[in-house]
Amino acid sequence: MNFNRIYEMQLFLTYNCNLQCKYCYEANCKINYKKSMDKEIIYKSIDFFIEKTKSNSEIHITFMGGEPLLEFELIKNAVEYINKKNSKKNITFKYAITTNGILIDSEIALFLKKNKFDISLSIDGNKYSHDLNRRTKNGNGSFYGAMNAIKIFKEKEIDFNVRMTIATNTIKYLKDNVKYLLDLGINNIRISPDYFNKWEDEFNNVYKLQYKELAKLYMDYKKVRNIKIDILEGKIRNFLLDGKGLLCNAGYGKFVIGTEGELYPCTFVIGDDKFKIGTIEEGVNISKMNLILDKYYDSNYNDCYNCKLSYFCQGSKCGYVNYKLTGVLNKPNSFICNHEKILYEVTSELVEELYLKEDKELKELIESLKVYVQVFEKYAFIREEAKKYFENLNKSVYIEKDGCSSKH
């Protein structure tokens, strides 16, 4: 199997962690493999992808754990090895890491900056909310460790984003926690629910209220500076477009490499031999991947396919999250279904407000999507509810001239 597009390699460096977060799905995995990767596995993993990838392609490498910075020397070894091996094929490597920040110091920070890492720092908001779930093995909070990482990143002028996990005990503070982070000067916040919490129906109203408040907050801050909140912005594109819901490219374009060189389609099933689809020495077993789909994909389940939100919905794409929750790749649980319906309503209102305010970024997105649907007309088209935004695009009351805008 040769790769000739953008591919993603997730290197699972270690199962060890210096925290014991209450919502950590990895902590509940029964792993029968080595706790940490060694240099030889790192090198073989890199060789595997370089050999299989055509020149002038792109590979995204995410260093994962556990806490990946517990194996900082391995990360340095990997980057040095790539620089040495890649000189002939001219593959573009892009690096990413998600860290709790506890181990960040000047040396690590400058290394990440030099090698242009996409850095995600896990923080759940203010001290109270963060320390509810993100604690050390001794039960102490980890908030000040994360704050120290922010301090170092700012001192070294290093770009980073914050990854916030929403749990049942923090959802009611969502808007306040995002405001807290924005007031710290953080401009890029990525928000994700903990899908494995026990989300009862009573949380639906809390979610709706908090997301609506979050959208108001987003619009207020957007007036004065450029901010990104992915759970809002990331949904705008899917609100504007429609099409057939498709599972992600796990196992075909994205691969997770375990500590002993095993290959898996997704981090949610790492260490589970049912989903082992090869090794870095044997390669990807496409037959095994197809067998997994045959076994865990229910072709008789059409609720998502027939739903008007299927293209918008996370549940129609994240197959292995679905599997962990329902045992079926293409069947989300009721929480995901309700959550996405709430997000659709909030996104619809947000797009309307951005449109009425003649938001430049929305206009640019619509322009690019007009081209996209022309190229991929078999797979994506303009959502019925969004057609007015495309039809009125060229009737903007703003006319740009010489870098200025004037109303007409």
Number of helices: 13
Poorly predicted ranges: 396-408
Nearest-integer average pLDDT: 91
Oligomeric status: single chain
**Coarse shape:** globular
Which structural class should the secondary elements be placed in? Answer: alpha/beta
Cα distance, first to last residue? 56 Å
β-strand percent reads 15-25%
Run of helices and strands = EHEHEHEHHEHEHEHEEEEEHHHHEHEE
Describe it for me?
The chain is an alpha/beta fold. The longest helix is centred in the C-terminal third of the chain and has 23 residues, at 334-356. It has helices spanning 39-52, 72-85, 106-114, 127-133, 143-155, 174-183, 203-222, 230-240, 286-296, 319-326, 334-356, 360-375, 387-391, and strands at residues 6-12, 58-64, 92-99, 118-122, 161-166, 188-193, 228-229, 241-243, 254-257, 263-264, 278-279, 283-284, 380-382, 398-401, 404-407. Helix 1 (39-52) runs parallel beside helix 2 (72-85), helix 6 (174-183) packs parallel to helix 7 (203-222) and helix 7 packs parallel to helix 11.
List its salient traits.
disordered C terminus, alpha/beta, 39% helix, two-stranded antiparallel sheet, 16% strand, 13 helices, 408 residues
Short description:
The protein has helices at 39-52, 72-85, 106-114, 127-133, 143-155, 174-183, 203-222, 230-240, 286-296, 319-326, 334-356, 360-375, 387-391; strands at residues 6-12, 58-64, 92-99, 118-122, 161-166, 188-193, 228-229, 241-243, 254-257, 263-264, 278-279, 283-284, 380-382, 398-401, 404-407. By secondary structure, it is of the alpha/beta class.
